[in-house]
Design brief:
- The structure is a single chain.
- By secondary structure, the protein is an alpha+beta fold.
- It has one domain.
- The chain is 38% helix and 25% strand.
- The protein has helices at 11-14, 18-43, 74-81, 138-161, and strands at residues 54-61, 64-70, 86-88, 94-102, 116-125, 128-130.
- It has a two-stranded antiparallel ribbon.
- A hairpin with a 2-residue loop joins strand 1 and strand 2.
- The longest helix is centred in the first third of the chain and has 26 residues, at 18-43.
């Protein structure tokens, strides 16, 4: 007699453990955090003074997997949030101004280009009223992109576990 014997392993051994699912969740969030770090780096790529970003790797907090990437650099925060028109310089202080200026960054755009002053310079005494900085809203754009990528990666992960 010839027969094929097929034995299915125990179902419990086929299902992932809680630890395996958590490890996959942490790895998924860390992949997105790496992209967030690259996106932020693209926003200041052409800057002379580069802000320091801190990346906190993902970890389990209760039932959530949480990670973050942030900076406390005041210049970067000022670019992100913007400023209103204000007065700079001291009374009777001399300062040179250029006629034109090309911004290195664009609001709601991840990237940075060559910029800075151009044209003839004008020397004037202060104080001076300057336009404020238009908010770049890097945080909103990078967060939106990261959340979208996390949703895609999570759906792929869930489909693998089914």
């Amino acid at each position: 007699m010839l027969k094929a014997k097929i034995t299915m392993p125990d179902f419990a051994s086929l299902l992932p453990t809680r630890e395996q699912v958590v490890a996959l969740g942490i790895a998924t969030v860390n992949v997105v955090l790496d992209q967030v770090d690259r996106d932020y780096a693209a926003t200041y790529a052409t800057w002379d003074g580069k802000p320091k970003f801190i990346k906190e790797r993902a970890k389990l907090a209760g039932t959530l997997v949480i990670g973050s990437c942030y900076t406390q650099d005041p210049n970067y925060v000022r670019m992100n949030d913007g400023t209103s028109a204000h007065v700079v310089g001291r009374n009777r202080q001399w300062m040179a101004f250029s006629f034109g200026y090309r911004q290195k960054t664009t609001p709601r755009y991840i990237g940075s280009r060559r910029g800075g002053p151009f044209g003839n310079k004008v020397v004037a005494r202060g104080p001076w009223r300057v336009r404020g900085i238009v908010p770049r809203e890097f945080q909103e754009v990078v967060s939106w992109k990261a959340q979208r990528q996390l949703e895609i990666n999570t759906k792929k992960l869930v489909s693998l576990l089914r």
